[in-house]
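Appendix B, example 12.
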Amino acid sequence: MFETLAQSGVNYIRLRVWNDPYDKNGNGYGGGNNDLTTAMKLGVRAARYGMKVCIDFHYSDFWADPKRQHAPKAWKGMTVDEKSDALYDYTTESLGKLLDAGVDVGMVQIGNEINNGMSGETDVDAVMQLLNSGSKAVREVAESYGKDIKVAVHYTNIEDNDQIDTMAANLKDAGVDYDMFGLSFYPFWDGTNENMQNAAKLIEDKYGKEVYIAETSYCYTSEDGDGFGNSLKGTDDLTDGYGATVQSQATVIRDICAAANEAGVEGVFYWEGTWIPVGSADADNSALWEKYGSGWASSYSAEYDPDDAGLYYGGCSWDNQAMFDFTGHPLASLNVFKYLKYGATAPLAVDYIPDVYVSCNVGEDLVLPESIDVVYNDRSQNKKQSVSWNETQMKAIDTTKAGSYEIEGALEEGTTVTAHVEVEMVNYAVNPGFEDKNRSMWKVSYEGEADPTDYQVKADDAHSGETAFHFWSGDSDMEFSIEQEVTGLENGTYQLSVFSQGGDMSSDASMELYAVTADGGQTAPFMLTTYNDWQNPTIREIKVTDGTVKIGVRFQCNVGSWGTVDDFTLNRISD
């Protein structure tokens, strides 16, 4: 494998190291069981083919990332000072063994994605103390061996540049001695290339540190290699401009490297490009994953990480993002690292044709595009091509009721494409469930000095999602309304509904859903009874003649009553 990587232009290998990824009976936690001995063996193989190695100390017995930063079992119960000494000793001893074995260590990460802590510590001062101990150990070992070894820190969630600034400021304030600032950058999770560049430039310009991309990847297929399921499905979660193809995988990496280079980034590591599936997608591979540690986690990890690995252990969720196929043969995309240096030419070819998705409201005519986008291996050649749709399939679609359909089409040169058609009831209310933080389209009015309402983020009290319009007052009776004016509508007949729940209402409490058009107003009264007894008042015949309607709810209720309103729905149901 290392020979293949070297021949493909890879010049640096990043190896994670866990302190003790085994239970008391010697059963591995999984994920490759990457202890120091494993890192030494792999690092020597990399050195044999001229590749430097970045050692990524997680300072944990298993995965360390923003979700979990468990201390090694051997450090359990230690104070921060004791843990700091243990980390120094562990780093010194481990790095010495790696160098003695012949591993060409060029960089050492002291921690992995440490945004929210490290080795069981979450206090910023404690984490900084641990980092200082790790850095001190690396510096001393490097000096004693006469080696130039960079000290690196590693963070993620770079879509939030303010958070990255805070992380770097903490390091500076604590006087942490390091050279490299590592960023995890997954284009399908962490924002645009431009945002990655902004984060890199922030660290370079404001803090004077070198930056590298510690992790990135992309899928080459939407298929699942081992039956465990994929983190990036390669369907509706793709990055704009790229498909789930070998060509797109290479193009994504090329574009990330170009953007990183433009921002002064030192280099890019691809995360887990060799993690192919163990077992086939249609087999029960649990025994293999347990025996060889070839899944992301084994059941044995439950003793150490019971809340995550112990619950969801299993195979590989990354096999469709490897740069080898499911049988271990290198993909053509692996050559991207070589082509970055020396260039490449290839005949113009179609990379992928984006899926066509069309929707229409019930009762409307279905309109399919006359041309669709075609994406080539040379993106500058992308163009639209005319498409002919199957007339028989189109005529078979019943637009008088909701439904899902597929229509086949053919491009000019004969390539077959498919349009996915949804006939649906379109909801014309804007931000109907209040999930979008921009709620300027909603107008809240109330009587009295204090507003008894707010937007509450609490999934248990929302009809769907996490947010709902909430009301309560312990001081006085309440009279309030929330409404929205919807404009630009096609004239016709509409239906309005909403969900509401609450309780402690007096018998004279009043609440109603309302709609106001140029022809007047209509209401639907309702009453709230108790928690989670969702009422769904509906106004069924709203005539819109000038493209505008006001929708909302009004409440007059007693002190101490309470409730939430959620999920307005405004549908056009007929002419």
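The chain has a mean pLDDT of 96. The chain is about 25% helix and 25% strand.
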